[in-house]
């Protein structure tokens, strides 16, 4: 809870600015008082009246008006935390280079409070060397980040640059201002995330559609509860979670080796979507298509069963949790999988919709005691709720 905490929210120019209203709702629900600053760019996407209505406070958007009323220095000294969500490339550049030509940039230079930035911009802008250099400069000065996420953008393209979901931003705010109890302190958690890529030849591979969002969120949530986390991640377009040791792998065999190397562990959450099969004989050169020739025949081989291997390992973690991504008879298949793999819990979900790559999930928790239905919620909330259940089970 954030009772009596003062948050200064800066909303800058991004089409994702509408999400700031949901973030304010969550902050106020948690007990915080929210003061909003709206940049000229931000005002193109969300109105001062909307922000004032949901914060219950006057919205500040003009440097000179602020000087006449309470002054930018007082605004800068008021909060326990300054949150910039969304943070545009322009505002990040001003902050990194010490420019102060509007109220938002002036407050950022004058504040002594911690600052959390949630970037939101076109993928090309986020990946530009100037933006990455500015982000690195601010991080070196102690500025905290959440996101950006990767996925479809407003324009017809996809990539890193999406504003983190309000629930994910809340997790980081609470960790900064109201550090949760650390019931998993002293525990080691192993988490797998993302897909695996099984090569056919030097340019082609077999893979699953996993984005890694749920697995990465689980690693973040377990670390927030005090666990030492080793995240074994397949190829994903996500930043490594802060405070987590991330091991990057490509194939299922590499993932298994990394998981075994991470043992012993108290907890294993195997959220990766591992390819069940690989090509038995990977071509050393690119397979060529010839006019009139038949398509090549690929002989498949089974990949190692990582979940079963960890559940039956001589250094088996005390709690082993698998995932079941199903498109039909979800609970029935998940119950059978839990028994077949010898794991303690299965987190089951129906992936016939937009779950893979999406920001929300609806899961069922399968244990020896039965089936627990959870409502649809953002993946960050699923992760925090699962981490809490894990802490209860190991208490």
| Tally of individual helices | 14
Assigned CATH superfamily of the largest domain: CoaB-like
Distance N to C terminus: 22 Å
Structural category is alpha/beta
- So what's the CATH class of the largest domain? Alpha Beta
The profile of the biggest β sheet is:
8 strands, mixed
Radius of gyration: 23 Å
Work out the strand percent.
15-25%
Label the CATH architecture of the largest domain: 3-Layer(aba) Sandwich
| Count of distinct structural domains | 2
How many beta-strand elements?
21
Helix content: 25-40%
User: Looking at the structure, what is the overall shape?
Assistant: globular
Notable characteristics:
single chain, 395 residues, alpha/beta, Rossmann fold, 2 domains, 8-stranded mixed β-sheet, 5-stranded parallel β-sheet, 25% strand, globular
How would you describe this structure to a colleague?
With 395 residues, the protein is an alpha/beta fold. The chain folds into two domains: 6-177, Flavin prenyltransferase-like (Rossmann fold), CATH 3.40.50.1950; 188-283 and 294-394, Rossmann fold (3-Layer(aba) Sandwich). The chain has helices at 19-29, 48-55, 63-69, 72-77, 89-97, 103-110, 123-127, 129-140, 166-177, 213-224, 252-262, 306-311, 330-341, 379-394; strands at 6-11, 33-38, 81-87, 115-119, 144-145, 149-152, 158-162, 188-193, 197-201, 204-207, 228-233, 245-248, 267-270, 277-279, 300-302, 319-326, 345-350, 360-361, 363-367, 370-373, 377-378. It has an eight-stranded mixed β-sheet, sandwiched between helices. A hairpin with a 5-residue loop joins strand 6 and strand 7 (158-162). The chain is globular.
